[in-house]
């Protein structure tokens, strides 16, 4: 990738429509059944879509979110069992944080104790209580206690976790970067503003928080580090930002390209339309539309019930299903939904 001159459009008010915040975060997992058990049952997120990696159809793509798969709530995974364990370092999303209601961290610590989840002592960050933990593949995740407003756009999924503690979409992502200056300028061009800075003990440096204008997934924290990392199980593949309409996405794509980055053309991902690019420090960014959404091809009350093969892949269902390992989706009544559609 060739980096060109930086743009300051986002700082002058002449840039694209600002992103409201994070749309989804996609990560690399190992065993698909273990991933389902942890994210759907232990963390209580809803499996809103069970599909395949459209670039590698022999691999699952699991989408977890709130009760309706609202933009800003979906954590997605590619379970690549053959990959080695990764290591978080510069040029990666180092932490993904979710919002939970104030007063619920005691519940989560008790739940983690009961289920053997690896977690750390609570921290305070920008005046908020943070509970760091790791999923079974070692992915660093955090719960941040916040006041959830009455008009919050998310809808709690309560199959396994009570509404008083249920995850309510993203809070933030933390970017670990070797050199943050141009990435920070990019974030400003995307419509985020620098809000606060404080010391970050984990990286031995400062943490700067950038804020978008939306109610969910509005924060991006930037930390400079020279720590080396590697991709693999337990790392983030990419972070997607909301560009709700095609016009919003086109404007953002043009702004990104004007900075010397190389965004792809729009790619139809069936539940949203996407543009991808690596930002200056190497983190893979995606721009994702709001429509058509996860309920566009399944009834809302049946999300995740069957293996959905988008577009041309449906005609290859028999061969694709034969290649995928069998999995079952946890159910609160002790029953399970198999991965086959028949």
UniProtKB/TrEMBL annotation:
PROSITE patterns: VOC. GO terms for molecular function: dioxygenase activity. Residues 21-146, 169-290 form the VOC domain. Gene3D superfamilies: 2,3-Dihydroxybiphenyl 1,2-Dioxygenase, domain 1. InterPro entries: Extradiol_RC_dioxygenase (IPR052537), Glyas_Bleomycin-R_OHBP_Dase (IPR029068), Glyas_Fos-R_dOase_dom (IPR004360), VOC_core (IPR037523). Residues 1-22 are annotated as: Disordered. The keyword Oxidoreductase applies. Pfam families: Glyoxalase. Residues 1-12 have a biased composition (Acidic residues). Keywords: Dioxygenase, Oxidoreductase. PANTHER family: RING-CLEAVING DIOXYGENASE MHQE-RELATED. This is Glyoxalase family protein. It comes from Halorubrum ezzemoulense (Halorubrum chaoviator).
